Predict the 3D structure of the following.
Amino acid sequence: MNFSKVLWYKDPADDWNKALPVGNGRIGAMVFSQPLRERIQLNEDSVWSGGYRERNNPSALENLERVRQLIRSEKIPEAEAVIFDAFCGTPPNERHYMPLGDMTAEHYGEENCVFKARSLDLETAICLTEYEINGVNFKREVICSAPDNALVMNISADKKGSVSVRISIDGRDDYFDSNSPVNDTDISYYGGCGGNGGIGFAAYIRVVGKGGKVRRYGNFIQAEQCDEITVILTAQTSYRYKNYKELCRLQAEECAKKDYEAIRSAHIADYRSYFDRAELSVCDTSGGSSRLPTDERLALVREGKSDSELVRLYFDFGRYLMIAGSREGTLPLNLQGIWNQDMWPAWGGRYTVNINTEMNYWPVESCNLSELHTPLFALIEKMRPHGRETAKKMYDCSGFVCHHNTDLWGDTAPQDLWIPATQWPMGAAWLCLHIWEHYLFTCDKDFLSEKYDTIKEASEFFTDFLIEDKCGRLVTCPSLSPENTYITQSGSKGSVCIGPSMDSQIIYSLFTAVISAGEILDRDSEYCSKLREMRERLPKPEVGKYGQIKEWAEDYDEAEPGHRHISQLFALYPADLISMRKTPELAKAARATLERRLSHGGGHTGWSRAWIINHWARLFDGERVEENINALLSHSTSDNMFDMHPPFQIDGNFGGCAGITESMLQSENGEIILLPALCPSWRSGSFRGLRARGGFEVSCRWKEGKAELCEVISLCGNKCRLVCPESTEIFCGNSPVKYHYSDGAAEFETIRGKTYSVRF
């Protein structure tokens, strides 16, 4: 066993938060590794609770000016009362994510078993369970294959004729229509998720035995005295196909034409084509504990022990989850990714777009998995027509808008009846910044041309929606700072406000993206000039009375100073409006903001802690990065390495992975920065294959915390600007490269496809 890239355990999982995830982007499963009666909890990404329903509140527009006047007059309780009735969605909730079911594999008639180990190999995406029954050694492998569109389980033994297992499928609290065998090898399972356009789902199981016999027995497919068996499960829904039941059967039959080794080999080759693109190596500070089971290593970290190899494993696990959970043609990762066992999951398992969905995709570009970003772009396109209706009906604005949640249908109306979150019209704007980020990393002009109208349309909403504040600045109203509450000078509390800082920062970034895209594509010069003028009138980040970045237009106190959202620091990360090299005074205020949050108990949820890691990385503070990575592992990580909000939310895994990456490589403001916030315990190490904005792939080796050698591959032939000492030497092959040095950085021309070696 390669301990450096494996999650492994001495005991089977007795809880969902200890089970191990597998996935192919569309089908997800949690493997418990119970030896005698295995439960594999199943998901398919499009199993949601119902069809699209129009929820825009017809009373919003007629009350818009009234609400604005109340907010201007600081009559916040009155404004929030109107919003609660006239702006919240009708009905208040979008559709929610649901499980597919549970497949079981039971060694019937057996009682005596010795469990040996279970593992998830991050290099092969294979979940392995090893156990012994009556002196016979068994191996059970579970993979979720993208090439074969199937979840596949293989059970083998070291003695011929020893595999006698019953296979069945159930679950969903009995909300399905059929789970019966249709012949001696196959089970058909199907049902529906509500009327009025609700989604129909199906799964199909085929059991293939070697030696022995496979037959129908009651509600099971029963394998009797086989040498080994392979269980193939396919799943589809009416969301994508009218003939989803038939397609399930055909895909299972097609997969069954191959033997298990061929399925396994194709799965590994496909998975490794993504996973092998990047790698991180750091000096081992585990003191020998790196060979211990993963849950025991986590327990030691909770006791204060350093384990840099566990941090590296967390980084690899984040990349694994991205490959397993988001593929081209699938739905994007929701709050639980594609792994959820609850008919009514926390927060509906939806796409929460006031940070969580965006955080899911923070590491995708920098970790060299760019095409796995595309499911998010497809969701944005699905939102556009609904967002136009919401913009027009609620605000009489052009463009398209989304509030703080959406679902698989692209619903854009306000979600929930919760004032601190519901009335926030920035969801589409933030999501569209991912389109611009994808371009910055790939420099793909065809992609930018295809998506230009999308980001432009998101900006058009704000050309109509923004109003003047008392200082003549252009601000949003009504809006809020996500999920936070302020206290006015008179002592009253409120959430709805005029011009929260995060809104202005997002709009500034969106306008900049549209302006830059227009210049690159030579489009819409008149419209872009209008955006430039409006951008100048947006509020800029300001320093408040505590030396912090102000969260609201007024320098209010927070009702909860340790709040989990740090929305006012959007400008620091994921944006680059605040940076150590370009705006040092604002960076100082950002540090004060973080220290104030943390001193009052901030970072108490996994995703919040992950965001804080990225903030400290942007502030070039490796000590605080390491401190908060350890806190993430100690307080917000389950035994199976899933992030805990609590309960489970996958965003912290991706945010943490992004933060580890940011500590090693940054590329904000047109510069590449090596090792900006390296953890002090990572005295030596290397990374390979990370990506930087501008179209560069970067690898680096360091010793005693200092870079020794760096390689930059130019993917697009753009000019490279690298922060480095003036004595740095740069070569292309054996030829020295001339560069211009200014403000602590070397700037040099590159040729597409060439590798540049940097020696310090």
Q: What stands out?
A: The chain has four domains: 3-48+96-275, 60-90+352-540, 548-656, 685-759. The mean pLDDT is 97. The longest helix spans residues 374-395. The CA atoms of residues 580 and 587 lie 6 Å apart.
